[in-house]
């Protein structure tokens, strides 16, 4: 399914049904169910769980919580449950506001139970290219504040991109080589951009499968992490689409009314490289966690 070797092209799940996997029930492999059975957080109103297009065998799982706080708590509970079951798991993490509260909740758990995170491994999903390593706007700095420092994870268990890499191609080869030797990712935590980008895989006629330097779309350059920078980066370093889709489980978070248009499009079963998030339809174990403001039933 490629226009040329290593390139992904537009797919329609109705034309290529064998590429679309059903979200399975829990098995010995540890995959997530289409209707998750992870511990529920007490609440007055039960959450809504939508197996999308339930008339079809092809579905994503969308968990609709009341608001950002309850959605973040649900996501954190899922991650904690997975770490308890597999303390050495490889967690791939995105920076930014969508997962930030869930990360801080993990930090609260680490304060009460620090031994739980002593063997956890973490890999960064993407990074701005061209920023000084100590710049607080880097994705790594955001992750240090919200996740790594609270969990007590040092450089020996955190694989990061160098934002100041003098040779971007060599840096991509380094991170890609590490992932090849130590992967696959067990759980990949993602947000989704307003243009449908996943990590820094931007909309394009073709998508790169492996780790690469990506030219950023203008909307990505307006990311809140870069708000204070007059000289915004034009490129980023990112895991590729195949790297993401090889993850055993994917947890995507989308909160707030501003995410409603992109989430509505994501829930439609059509796969298009001009909307990279749509490739999640090819993965058998995706859980989307959103709030009512982001979801329109």
- Helix/strand-derived category reads alpha/beta
Strand content: 15-25%
- The strands making up the biggest β-sheet line up spatially as 1-2-11-10-7-3-4-6
Fraction of residues in H or I helices:
25-40%
The radius of gyration over CA amounts to 18 Å
Gap from first CA to last CA: 33 Å
What's the architecture, going by CATH? 3-Layer(aba) Sandwich
- Which topology does CATH recognise? Rossmann fold
Q: Total number of β-strand segments? A: 11
In one word, what is the shape? globular
Lay out the secondary structure.
Blueprint: E1 48-51, E2 61-65, H1 68-85, E3 90-93, H2 100-112, E4 121-124, E5 126-129, H3 139-151, E6 158-159, H4 168-182, E7 187-190, E8 212-215, H5 218-221, E9 235-238, H6 241-245, E10 249-254, H7 260-266, E11 286-291
Describe this structure as you would to a colleague:
It is globular and about 45 Å long. It has helices at residues 68-85, 100-112, 139-151, 168-182, 218-221, 241-245, 260-266, and strands at residues 48-51, 61-65, 90-93, 121-124, 126-129, 158-159, 187-190, 212-215, 235-238, 249-254, 286-291. β10 (249-254), α7 and β11 (286-291) form a beta-alpha-beta unit. 25% of the residues lie in helices and 16% in strands. With 297 residues, it is α/β, with parallel strands linked by helices. The chain has one domain (60-291): Rossmann fold, CATH 3.40.50.1360.
